[in-house]
UniProtKB/TrEMBL annotation:
Coiled-coil portions: none
Protein species of origin: Xaviernesmea oryzae
InterPro entries the UniProt entry points to: AAA+_ATPase, ABC_transporter-like_ATP-bd, ABC_transporter-like_CS, BCAA_Transport_ATP-bd_LivF, P-loop_NTPase
PROSITE patterns xrefs: ABC_TRANSPORTER_1 (PS00211), ABC_TRANSPORTER_2 (PS50893)
Name the UniProt record assigns to this protein: Branched-chain amino acid transport system ATP-binding protein
Annotated GO biological process: L-amino acid transport
GO MF annotations, alphabetized: ATP binding; ATP hydrolysis activity; branched-chain amino acid transmembrane transporter activity
Domain annotation ABC transporter: ranges: 6-238
Amino acid sequence: MSPLLLEVRDVIAGYRPDLPILHGVSLHVGTAEMVTVIGPNGAGKSTLVKAIAGLVPISAGSVAVEGTEVTNLLTHKLATASIAYVPQTANVFTSLTIDENLKLGASTLSKADAGRRIAKAYEDFPALTQYRGQKAKVLSGGQRQMLAVARALLTEPRLLMLDEPSAGLSPLMVSEVFSRLKTLIATGVSILMVEQNVKAALAISDRTYVLAEGRNRIDGDSAKLAGDTEVAAIYLGAGGRKR
Ligand SMILES: Nc1ncnc2c1ncn2[C@@H]1O[C@H](COP(=O)(O)OP(=O)(O)O)[C@@H](O)[C@H]1O
Ligand SMILES: [Mg+2]
């Protein structure tokens, strides 16, 4: 059993104190583990990753990274807590160049570290190199997702959280982005990913949590859940999408 990198316990959270969206959600992510969160639209998946990232207030429960409680820490402090978060939309600045986007992601680093890690980002994401001086709006959806991931990695997080990285991508780009994420796992980074693409999520991840109406519904090994009729039932239910 790998040590727990992230432990979320009985989290109650929402945008207004009187209106909780998450009603006591728990999950954990081990070192170098890839975990996905799936569930119908409105289940609270985005709210969950935002709560972990400190962007939605948690009124009860706890979030711990390597045993240290980080509940309600502001996002800019998350870098020191080793978590990076790539939101679902608006995750790159389209009016800035690729270089400028990366520099922004490295703004908390020393100049030497920033230079070294940005050079490494271009090495790791060679597709970005030819566009470095161009505005991010020239990039395809998949390339933007790669840029968002490259930028998130500049602070060398232990845990990368992504909200629907496959949204709007062609099947070919989905497999390219996912296989890139898989290589990150090999470097010891852990991933917590929200996905609507249930089939792809179950195929790539180690474990999966199903959320429904702000609660844990089912969880387990992804390969096992892929054959689970209850998982299929949730996606055929109200608000769900069949995949
Ligand atoms: N910024 C917000 N302010 C208030 N309510 C929100 C906000 N964002 C989402 N919600 C509500 O929270 C619930 C869960 O949304 P969300 O976490 O986005 O679900 P999912 O990502 O699973 O589709 C929904 O009822 C949604 O209307
Ligand atoms: Mg969402």
